[in-house]
Amino acid sequence: MTIHIITIDGPSGSGKGTLAARLAEHYAYRLLDSGALYRLLGLSLFQHNLLDNLTDEAALKQCVTIALNLDIEFKSNSQGTQVFLDGQDVSQQIRTEQVGEYASKVAAIPELRQALFERQRAFAQQPGLVADGRDMATSIFPEAQSKIYLTASAESRAERRVKQLQAMGHDVKISGILANIEARDKRDMERSVAPLKPAVDAYMIDSSDLSIDDVFELMIRYIDRS
Ligand code: DC
């Protein structure tokens, strides 16, 4: 039986994470948070002191080996998902801006993207999968039956991110966050491998002026007819 795959691609702060989790719950499907994989790899390479060496061939080989053997675990409960790296709970740590930067660096390296390919494909299991990322429809699951591209203006994404970080107890300013978002968007969209862009057959949603509930309704309507 074919596995129903729903992909949600788009920039960070568009509401993808929240909506992907809601869709996975609604359909009782598995959830792939591919950004978390890049964040975990970024954190691991930082811990191994390898992040500044990504252009060195021998060091890159070592990074690929680390990527292929990453010891990670996702544990879901009613509070959300806990993420473990080498047995340590890094759920909070991987959500910081700093680890986001590490992830963005790692994500620009073709060999490291390739090393995470099979790990992502392995999430596709019955009864179905909601895959959240940047290249889910264009590279990892081109066969997906339901492809969504969710975006929002950089300003509204920065506002949401500030609220999220403040709720986590961080003291942040919108100007810094907006500059980070714009720099990361540029890097994600301009990289030569798997750049952030909609699949040709993606259903496009701009969430700038929509509530999460409105976007969820649009998605369900699209998925149920696709
Ligand atoms: O969605 P996020 O902010 O957790 O993603 C972290 C970084 O990883 C971001 O810079 C984009 C990158 N990423 C990617 O290149 N491909 C994916 N499928 C998911 C994330």
Automatic annotation (TrEMBL):
Catalytic reaction annotation: dCMP + ATP = dCDP + ADP; CMP + ATP = CDP + ADP
Lineage: Bacteria, Pseudomonadati, Pseudomonadota, Gammaproteobacteria, Moraxellales
Name under which the protein is recorded: Cytidylate kinase
SUPFAM superfamilies per UniProt: P-loop containing nucleoside triphosphate hydrolases
Cellular component annotations (GO), alphabetically ordered: cytosol
Enzyme class of the recorded protein, top EC level: transferase
Keywords per UniProt: ATP-binding, Cytoplasm, Kinase, Nucleotide-binding, Transferase
PANTHER family linked: CYTIDYLATE KINASE, CYTIDYLATE KINASE/PANTOATE-BETA-ALANINE LIGASE
Gene Ontology MF term list: ATP binding; CMP kinase activity; dCMP kinase activity
Organism of derivation: Acinetobacter rudis CIP 110305
